[in-house]
Amino acid sequence: MILDWFYEEGPRGPENWKNICAIFHKAENESLQSPINLKEEEVTAEMDGNLLAFDYHATNFRSSFFNHTVHLNPVAGEKINHVVFNHKRYTLEDIHFHLPSEHLINSQQFPLEMHLVHRSAKNELLVIGVVAEPTQVPLNKKLAKIDNIALNPRNAARGFVVPILLNQLLPEKRTFFNYSGSLTTPPTEGPVEWLVFKMPVYMRQGLLKAFEEQIGKTNRPVQERKGRPIYLADK
Fold first, then answer.
1. How many CA atoms lie within 13 A of 80 on its CB side?
2. Cβ partners under 8 Å of residue 66, min gap 6
3. C-beta atoms surrounding 49 within 10 Å
4. Do residues 131 and 112 touch, judged by C-beta distance below 8 A?
5. Are 184 and 102 in contact (CB under 8 A)?
6. Residue 9, in any domain of the structure
7. Has residue 194 been placed in a domain?
8. Helical segments of the chain, H only
9. Other Cβ atoms closer than 10 A to 32
10. Pairing, β 125-135 against β 192-197
11. What is the CATH number of the domain that holds 94?
12. pLDDT tens figures, 128-160
């Protein structure tokens, strides 16, 4: 059964997702929810940045459009990409986008947030959040190709395959917040290990405009922290 949910206010908007069905209700009530406002002044403790390591490669991704946004998934047979966090290995399985950013960084919202979704061998989820700001020109030709083909919402549903250098999607300065939360789309179940970079990356202004015009608002509002610890790692 397909259950429609939306980002606009109303009976199927974010404030009412938990009322759509029992599965959504259970997920929201039994998990600490995401996204949240990540404030340096509220950090519980510092974390060793060396607990996070990337094993990313140039990889072909296929674009698609579902759950109101653009998704990129590794093409079958490609070399597997991993991150290791706190001595546990997670495999990258999906990249998708929210507009504007779902997490706030020191109470600031950004035009876009990219989520890199990873899963461990024990089915545990780790999501890396990368916020983005606009730039007038692409940073290099490879990123321009990604912008123009794979990420443009008009093209995504056509299933383009495009090579991506994953490390180029991450900020140069990799200070990150860490906390435990949930998925940000229904069912918003947890736990999800969240790593959110403090510094933004830069995305072409034209691509952000295409997202705004063709997708519109795709962010869940911030949720209550409810006393959970937040860690900050300077990497």
1. 10
2. none
3. 14
4. yes
5. yes
6. no
7. yes
8. 22-30, 141-145, 153-156, 205-214
9. 18
10. parallel
11. 3.10.200.10
12. 999 999 886 555 444 454 555 556 666 666 777
